[in-house]
Amino acid sequence: TAIAQKNQQKATTPSKLAHVEVTVTDMKGNPRKGEQVVFQGEKTGKIIISVSDGNGKLVQELAPGEKYLISLKILSDTTVYSSLDVPALGEDEYFTDPFWIHIKYEPARHYTLHNVHFDFGKATLRPDSFSELTELVDYLQRKDDINIEIAGHTDNIGNDAENLKLSQQRANTIRDYLIKKGIKPTRVMAKGYGASVPVADNTTDAGRQLNRRTEVKIL
Q: Listing from the earlier edge strand, what are the strands of the sheet with 188-192?
């Protein structure tokens, strides 16, 4: 859930670049530190990423003559919350007022790591998993005030006890990876749930695939 408000305030120095001030808070107005705000130009496709400070604030300079989509990037999910039209300037024209954007945002508490995969029946990570795990490391480094649980889940094929054991081993593997990358062990729990918490029908291949998942829970 998010609300984006836009306004302009008085600037002091004329500039050929648009001075954009962004504040990110929760729905109660509390600042959100370490949020990645993404500006993407509709014409050029150019992406600029800035991170909010401890007061939930960031400043970004943007080129004129472009419409920017403004998103928040949370782990592997990016959601567009607003857009900003920065008008083109004439040769003797300058921006004298900054653009001000207030994003009110209430984060989810659960995320599925869609691109984290293991070898069949094992707790060995496949090479294509590391890109998303790198994003998770970066997220935890920016959000150094949160703790998480890595939750491993399986489908219902096979023995319940073995599924529970495998899900715990896989959760442990991800926890170990995060710790090796510098995340404090006290910040990361690992728990295997086996097939006990399905999100889809285990009688179909598509459902079982959805149930074989790894989740991140914000504690």
A: 110-112, 213-218, 148-153, 188-192
